[in-house]
Amino acid sequence: MSIQALGEALWDKTEKVRPAVSRSGYYYALYHEIIEMAGAYASDGFRFYEEGDTVNAHAAITYGFGWLDCGCLLGIFNDIDALDELPLIEEKTAPNLESHLKEKTGRYHRMLTTALESVVINPEEESPVHEAAEIVLFKAGRYLHKAEKTMKTGNLLQALGELSYGYGFLDAGIRAGLLRVKKNRHLFTI
Q: Residue 122 above 90 pLDDT?
């Protein structure tokens, strides 16, 4: 899949999504924030892509998908499903962006690693959303580990997408109140 096709898929999903929650309830505000974040990152991704910056385009689009898919997990959307897996991007990075890709992938790896160490599950075990919090942590950790394996193959663009997706999922989980930040608040969109 190309970065542009992935961005179009994100944009299409954000355009089609409808709330599965009452407009007068608090979860509607969360619905609105998640759609706003996913749409903003899709838009940023397209802008970067048009400028020839596939590194930032891919990072933005996959981060937006992380937000959107966390909303799917929470059940606040109608009419869309989460990605089963982040698709393989078959695009190559231009030679002039290789050092930027290497730096950004390394930085995002460090950031996601630290971010996962900086949060705790917020809801009590008896809460029906405690399991959702566990899933958010699991999924963000899973994408960190996927990225580590992908980095070893040399496919840094795919690894960057995996890190960005996991980070977006984690940030959305924090915004949803599933996780509490115990340190390093600067790493999160809160």
A: yes
Q: Is residue 60 part of a domain?
A: yes
Mean pLDDT of 121-141: 96
Q: What is the mean pLDDT of residues 77-94?
A: 91
Q: Domains in the chain: how many in total?
A: 1
Q: Is residue 128 assigned to a domain?
A: yes
Q: Which two tokens stand for residue 28?
A: 């509607």
Whether residue 14 contacts residue 38, with contact meaning beta carbons closer than 8 Å, is answered with: yes
Contact by Cβ (8 Å): 61, 10: yes
Residue pair 161/62 in contact (Cβ under 8 Å)? The answer is yes
Rounded Cα distance between 126 and 96, Å, is 52
Give, in degrees to the nearest 5, the angle at Cα 54 between 82 and 175.
40
Q: Which two tokens stand for residue 73?
A: 């997990």
The two tokens of residue 134 are 């566990």
Residue 77 backbone phi and psi in degrees, to 5? -115, 150
Q: Is the pTM of this model over 0.85?
A: yes
